[in-house]
Automatic annotation (TrEMBL):
Segments forming domain Exo-beta-D-glucosaminidase Ig-fold: 790-899
Domain Glycoside hydrolase family 2 immunoglobulin-like beta-sandwich, first and last residues per copy: 233-346
Organism: Streptomyces albidocamelliae
Protein name: Exo-beta-D-glucosaminidase
Record-linked InterPro entries: Beta-gal/glucu_dom_sf, Beta-mannosidase-like_N2, EBDG/EBM, Galactose-bd-like_sf, GH, Ig-like_fold, Ig-like_GH2, Ig_GlcNase
Family: Belongs to the glycosyl hydrolase 2 family.
Domain (Beta-mannosidase-like galactose-binding) ranges: 83-195
Amino acid sequence: MFPRPPHRRRYTTTALVVGLLSTLTSGAWAGNRQPAAPHGQHVEATRVPSEAGSATPLAGFAVQSTAKVSDSPEAVSSPGYRAAGWHPAGPRSTVLAALLADGVYADPFHSSNLQKIPRADFQVPWWYRSDFTVEDTGRRTSLDFSGVVSAADVYVNGHRVAAAADVTGAYTHHELDITSLVRSGTNTVALRVRPNDPDQDLTMGWLDWLQPPPDRNMGLVRDVLVRRGGPVALRDTHVVTDLAVPSLATADLTVKTLARNDSGAPVTAEISGSVGGTHFTRSVPLAAHETKTVTFSPADVPGLHLTSPRVWWPAGMGGQPLYDLDLSAEVAGGTSDTAHRTFGIRDVRAPLNSAGARQYRINGRGLLVKGGGWSPDEFLRWDRTYVEDRLKYAVDLGLNTLRLEGHLEPDEFFDLADRYGVLTLPGWECCDKWEGQVNPSGSGKKWTDADHLVAKASMAAEAARLRGHPSVLSFLIGSDSAPDAAIEKGYLDALEAADWPVPVVPAASDASSPRLGASGMKMTGPYDWVPPGYWYAKREGGATGFNSETSAGPSIPTLDTLRRMMTPAELDTLWKDPGARQYHRSPSTTFGTLKIYDDALAHRYGPPTSLTDYVRKAQLAQYENVRAQFEAYGRNAADTDRPATGVIHWMFNSGWTSLHWQLVDRYLDQNGAYFGAKKANEPLHVQYSYDDRSVVVVNNLHTPAQGMTARATLFDPDGTQRYDRTVAGVSVEGDGAHTKPLTLPSSVSGLKPTYLLRLVLTDAAGREVSRNVYWLSGKADTLDWNGTTWYYTPTTGSADLTGLASMARVPVAATASTESSGGTSTTTVTLRNTGAGTTPSLLTDVRVVGGQGGPVLPVRWSDNDVSLWPGESVTLTATYRTADLRGSAPGVRVSGWNTAERTVPAA
């Protein structure tokens, strides 16, 4: 996020290793976050099998404040300790997440309930306690984990095995050998987790995204694994891929692993593996406590040279095939350890273009990065289904990338991104401790020598975890500020040692680091409202270069969501008082109100007359603005002069119930911003240019499109036609190329001050392939470029869209039916403007609703927020989980700018 104005490589205890080169198995974070048990209920012990190579996550914990526990750490961490009155927690849970699941506090997403949770309760350490059982002690046993926020003392069976001074940092990876402490039967792990302070600790913070959680996310947010194995362990297993570009005809695979002899005697390990149908093996002698790097390459295993490899592509560019590597170590005829990795074959390059902008290429093809900023749940609760639903939304919107500024999600997130073809841009976060050494505008404290070690260990652990995921496009080692020479060296040394396969970018802003040089990115805003024409200027946040985070700020949810998240009194203030502090916007004084947005809404569309009127105007404003943002970057991507190379909408989603920075809200409902983005990112798309009035066809498909016809028609709000032009024989190359079939005249006789533009693109067979409707003004929005701040550019004059209020209400007939199969339902809706006059129905919105009239969510529409002229009809489809109907018959709720709301059956 943009800067805010002032407002040892190895640590060891008795058995502690912070392995800079260590990595977890692909199952390290397997499974969904389990819900906590009812208040006070005993957390069952985790059964740990004896199989070599097994890695079993602890199934859950009991948690309690140290202020309420007077017993010694030795007692708390001993089997049989009675944790009376403790709170149950899932395997990955912050303290507050556990208390919320246990019903201690009211819904934190509603009203100001979050503000009522006492912060003092989380200013002391909290205990996490869990039991596990083993049947034998013949195997070596270790604890394997990361995700401690912020630090923890670790105890096993009454013995401290690691100190908080060593187990510190949310991203550092730890493997603790507890073989000598494990006994047959019940064993106990206890962690005394220290409070988190993002300005003091290299962990996670929220800055101005949302109202921060009172516990600051202290807790365990990734699995704690119990590993079992023999004398030789396999660690840091990975595959280095080398794809021939641009032919894609061959790929070389190099398999690497660390074979570590954990015993006090020399052994010979038989290392065997298979990948892509090729098998290989090698005998590896190891001295006592010796570690060797074992490498298999095409030079000694010809089958690792692949012909016609299955290449991984982002969604919309090709398929997402994945390969599997299986590896095992045998000692004296028995299995000692195993490793499994899933990986993809792809090539990523990101040179700077002639204008100094970062230009990504994947598998030899140019890539315009179109993405959004990702937010996890505010309380870092992992829910696989919820995450998968949002990734499906990203694909539905035509986005290809999600940026993770800090808050680096568990393995399953990247597994799902691989599967759905969603690229990711992970990196460290801004403005807190991560940038304390280099960002004078941030709040983070300066680094100590120990912080440099933690940062390097964090980079090594995340590099080892993320490098095999084809969805990972880059790593940003800085956000608002680039690292200095010392910090950069630590990061780059760790990345190089991990065989990091994709570009490393020094910052998300226009900054440089000593070795990497210029970032090739910009972070010029805006973060608050600007008019849609803003995006077409090749300056500030406009469509040139790579803008790593930007949007027009507020994103007012649907009425359904607003009524779930705010009280009637709060909703009344929302539309009546633009200067009021909005708790659901941001803790920042800069973004605390909606005044800039509300003033623009009133000037352009007219002052709101009710909550409903405010929300309906907001949906038009958000649709036109988000559409323009993505359309401008899409149009300018093929320019020879300062082309657009990437844009990240700030943000894709919010971690809580929010009034800004979101294309999709907390409840997975879709407002005008969502459908504006979906329209802009159509595969084959006709669009209007706010800067020069040109009509442009953009082809995001790989293959050229030929023989098309583009038609542009201008109307008064009452539907009176004032201009019409058709251009046949339109052709456009693929991969983001565009063509301009026509330009609208600067003036049209008789056209009202507020008017409508309908664009229709048909293919050679006459089939409609793209339709786009704009509401425009003869009076332009006037930008005060000289008054630009870090977060927006003010306007000195507004477009006049108040004429839309004069549009007559028109009837829209709707018929709907639903088919269900395999747990999925598809509702088909046909809309028809049955009005007798000439007035179109503007931004007609359709919702699938359940028995109580609320929306069925999540849902993916073929299209929505459509505009129909009299006699026109359109058929839309909505796909969703049948279970989300909760046993009721589906209905379809239809509404629009000038269409009365009504609900029709859809069973």
